[in-house]
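Task card 7
Instruction: Convert sequence to structure tokens.
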Amino acid sequence: MAADPALKPNSLRREGDGLLIEWNDGVRTFITWRDLRKNCPCATCQETHGKPENPFKILSPQELAVGAPEPRSIQTRGSYAYQVYWNDGHDTGIYSLEYLREISKPAEQAGH
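Output:
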């Protein structure tokens, strides 16, 4: 699918436990930090998305200390994407505008 060059966020803002995006076409979407982190598009995360979670995984002390996923910062990457720097140290995911739109829900459905 070709990217829509006209699709741009007017604003991104932290709201409660996630990210509220107001798009230039009037649509408002929301995604929780947990869902945003779970849908990280980097190659390492994509490799693990298709695998079932290990119910016996032992969390490292760093993972235990971090708690719930939360971004430390979000940086623009050109005019096409955002890179999220997470509190667990992960920072290789670059979320295209189209992907953000695809994985986020209409704000009204999400209660925002």
